[in-house]
UniProtKB/TrEMBL annotation:
UniProt xrefs under Pfam families: Aminotran_1_2 (PF00155)
Name of this protein: Aspartate aminotransferase
Biological process according to GO: amino acid metabolic process
Domain of life assignment: Eukaryota
Additional observations: In eukaryotes there are cytoplasmic, mitochondrial and chloroplastic isozymes.
Reaction(s) this enzyme catalyzes, per UniProt: L-aspartate + 2-oxoglutarate = oxaloacetate + L-glutamate
NCBIfam families referenced in this protein's UniProt entry, alphabetically: PRK09257.1
UniProt key word Nuclease: no
Length: 400
């Protein structure tokens, strides 16, 4: 007899539930626009050629399966920091504490645990409305509260910048603010560089703590420097940021769980103290991180030929996504839609916030075998040259 008869049934994950419904559907026309993972034009996962080359080199090299240290693979952490912070003086000053993490989610979890333990000034993380659903649950399970700040403007499917600034002005000085560095999930709506500059001034004035989630560096625009503008701007200005990097999307290494959590400190001595505490947090959670993804990413980033190939690979993915946005809008026009769909091409990254209502999304699933989240978010990765017109026609029919 077990001890668990009072354990209640929990709700299914809203996004993984969609994939299950998609799998059960036997219609050959079915399309999965829920999945947050890149697919090629044949709807297949894509192993990046640069990653393949690194894997061959690793396989043929003399590797072993020993434990990594708590903070992970040194060559990986160094190259992850270089990729994110590039020419920020903090890199040369060696004052960035960096710890390999279990992808972006693990970085967020380490970061929030660190804030909980070492930032007594606030117990609340401010997150954009809307945000990736896991942000709130990670905060909660780390013992922090969360509160939303204005972000999205449903009236024009874009950014409510004045609302955002207003809310962060009103927030108590020294608030913890989670920021999507690029390719905001779920809306695809990003700040312009000029808006980031303005936000930087606000953070400097209010002494807010910038907590960056960068899950899509390079994947958004196709250019890794362009996509890292915001965290670099803050660091160059002198802000101490926390940064969560994921290498799931930009390396196609979803299942390898490879990421990096870093904190910019004032000097090398502070970095050493911070690093010692990050390790103390990581040790009882998972002891030390997995080795394979760290080897792949560092081999790609540290081998000039592979690195060059990788920059091209990232652009291939970003360009396909950007082309699908245009193809979808063209398809809608061809069907005769007179609605303004330009937000789909203005938004960036894996997702578009279509503005479709829940009942329209339900009709798309039921009548057209097209699956997406009920907030109208579609993953552009699920579109390809063969199904984009079918999807456009279906969206036209349910939204007309
Ligand atoms: N942050 C955001 C905004 C995301 O969209 C994702 C992936 N869906 C992540 C973090 C983390 O993903 P992973 O743990 O797979 O790196």
């Amino acid at each position: 007899v077990s001890f668990w008869k009072d354990v209640p049934q929990g709700p299914p994950d809203p996004i993984l539930g969609i994939s299950e419904a998609f799998k059960r559907d036997t219609d050959p026309k079915k399309v999965n626009l829920g999945v947050g993972a890149y697919r090629d034009d044949n709807s297949k996962p894509w192993i990046l050629p640069s990653v393949k080359k690194a894997e061959d080199a690793i396989y043929n090299g003399k590797g072993d399966h020993e434990y990594l240290p708590i903070e992970g693979f040194d060559a990986f952490n160094t190259s992850a920091v270089k990729l994110a912070y590039a020419d920020c003086p903090a890199v040369a000053d060696k004052r960035i504490a960096a710890c390999q993490s279990l992808s972006g989610t693990g970085a967020l979890r380490l970061g929030m645990a660190f804030l909980k333990r070492f930032y007594p000034k606030s117990n609340t993380v401010l997150v954009p409305n809307p945000t990736w659903g896991n942000h709130k649950t990670i905060a909660k399970d780390s013992g922090l509260d969360w509160k939303e700040y204005t972000y999205y403007n449903p009236a024009n499917y874009g950014l409510n910048f004045n609302g955002l600034v207003g809310d962060l002005e009103k927030a108590p000085d020294g608030s913890i603010v989670l920021l999507h560095a690029c390719a905001h999930n779920p809306t695809g709506v990003d700040l312009t560089h000029a808006e980031w500059d303005q936000l930087y001034d606000l953070f400097a004035k209010k002494n807010h703590v910038p907590f960056f989630d960068m899950a899509y560096q390079g994947f958004a625009s196709g250019n890794t420097d362009h996509d890292a503008y915001a965290p670099r701007k803050f660091v160059k200005g002198g802000k101490s940021i926390l940064l969560c990097q994921s290498f799931a999307k930009n390396f196609g290494l979803y299942g390898e769980r490879i990421g990096c959590f870093s904190i910019v400190c004032d000097d090398a001595a502070e970095k050493d103290r911070v690093m010692s505490q990050v390790k103390i947090l990581a040790r009882p959670m998972y002891s030390n991180p997995p080795i394979y993804g760290a080897k792949v990413v560092s081999t790609v980033l540290n081998t000039p030929d592979f690195n060059k190939q990788w920059l091209a690979d990232v652009k291939t993915m970003a360009d396909r996504i950007i082309n699908m946005r245009a193809a979808l809008v063209d398809g809608l026009k061809t069907c005769g839609s007179t609605r303004d769909w330009s937000h789909i091409t203005k938004q960036i990254g894996m997702f578009a916030f279509t503005g479709l209502k829940a009942d329209q999304c339900q009709r798309l699933a039921k009548e057209f075998h097209i699956y997406m989240t009920m907030d109208g978010r579609i993953s552009l990765a699920g579109l390809n040259s063969k199904n984009v017109n079918y999807v456009a026609e279906a969206i036209f029919k349910v939204s007309n």
